[in-house]
């Protein structure tokens, strides 16, 4: 394979995917970016990247649920970063079958393509939601898997396939399991853009679900750095292994809202909407990351505090052109 072989990214049009594409280009890579086929020929958040960045990106409209699309995407690449997934937990209660098709079968298609084409490295994306509510803290990779939503179950299914393809066929896969990531371009189905977006749109009565759960929030640039770390580390340090990425610090949703209000100089009246509350047995009450395995294997460490990342995110949503891309006045499932 030539030294100039491109790297492939599935889910490239999304929040983390678009930031990863930017970072890969900045690191000197040509990127083959899969965007889910749509009749509008929309490239999602890739359309917000500069012409200079996009001159190094080959956008491929396709679908991870289709084996042919995936094979065409990864042929001749030196690494594949597999981020494509359905991720909204509330929508997984409504449409679980689609989550299995994308998150399980889609991952199978990527694994099969990487296996048969002999691609040197596959980075598979997991989620901290596969752990469920923390039984011990901080949560290491040895924590039991306890899937409390159809979304989490579908992601755990993809993880198990990745493990099995490494064990059975020697597929050079490494799994990254990010804890909650936030930053510019994130969907309003997540809590931080939901709050910041409502405030930026002039709202002071903020509607949310349960305020008690705690989360470990990582700024998107740090999560992307973790992807690059496991994608480029020596194979004997990472291949066949699963790594958590996170800060090791937790904050409750209620305290997070208070912090955002302070940063945005806004006195907020927070109200709970039952439509936004997960079913009782499905709510993950506590997530806090142990990323020591990743740090030891690659030297990765987060470079942003929660406050710094929130400030960058506030700046993004305060730009009227960015805010106009969102529907801040509705519940985004």
UniProtKB/TrEMBL annotation:
Q: Which Pfam family, any one of them, does this sequence belong to? A: GDP_Man_Dehyd
SUPFAM superfamilies assigned: NAD(P)-binding Rossmann-fold domains
Supply the CDD domains for this chain. Arna_like_SDR_e
Enumerate the GO terms in the molecular function aspect: carboxy-lyase activity; UDP-glucose 4-epimerase activity
Q: What class of enzyme is it?
A: isomerase
| Keywords of the record | Isomerase
Species for this entry: Streptomyces eurocidicus
Domain NAD(P)-binding, residue spans: 9-312
Enzyme Commission number(s): 5.1.3.2
Name the UniProt record assigns to this protein: NAD-dependent dehydratase
């Amino acid at each position: 394979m030539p030294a100039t072989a491109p790297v492939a990214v599935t889910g490239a049009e999304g929040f983390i995917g678009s930031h990863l594409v930017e970072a890969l280009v900045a690191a000197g890579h040509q990127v083959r970016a899969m965007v889910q086929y749509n009749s509008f020929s929309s490239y999602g958040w890739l359309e917000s990247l500069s012409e200079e960045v996009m001159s190094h990106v080959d956008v491929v409209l396709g679908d991870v649920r289709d084996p042919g699309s995936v094979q065409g995407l990864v042929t001749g690449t030196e690494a594949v970063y597999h981020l494509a997934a359905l991720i909204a937990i509330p929508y997984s209660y409504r449409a679980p079958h689609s989550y299995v098709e994308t998150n399980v079968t889609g991952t199978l298609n990527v694994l099969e393509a990487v296996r048969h084409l002999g691609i040197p490295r596959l980075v598979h994306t997991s989620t901290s939601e596969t752990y469920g509510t923390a039984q011990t803290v901080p949560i290491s990779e040895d924590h039991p898997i306890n899937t409390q939503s159809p979304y989490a179950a579908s992601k755990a299914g993809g993880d198990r396939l990745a493990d099995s393809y490494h064990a059975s066929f020697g597929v050079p896969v490494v799994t990254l399991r990010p804890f909650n990531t936030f930053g510019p371009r994130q969907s309003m189905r997540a809590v931080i853009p939901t709050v910041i977006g409502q405030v930026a749109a002039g709202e002071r009565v903020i509607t949310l679900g349960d305020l008690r759960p705690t989360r470990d929030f990582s700024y998107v640039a740090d999560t992307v750095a973790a992807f690059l770390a496991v994608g480029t580390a020596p194979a004997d340090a990472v291949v066949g292994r699963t790594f958590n990425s996170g800060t090791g610090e937790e904050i409750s949703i209620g305290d997070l809202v208070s912090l955002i209000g302070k940063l945005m100089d806004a006195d907020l009246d927070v109200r709970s909407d039952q439509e936004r509350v997960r079913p009782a047995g499905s709510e993950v009450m506590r997530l806090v990351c142990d990323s020591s395995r990743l740090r030891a294997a690659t030297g990765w460490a987060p470079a942003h505090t929660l406050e710094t990342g929130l400030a960058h995110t506030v700046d993004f949503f305060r730009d009227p052109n960015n805010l106009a891309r969102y529907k801040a006045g509705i519940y985004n499932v």
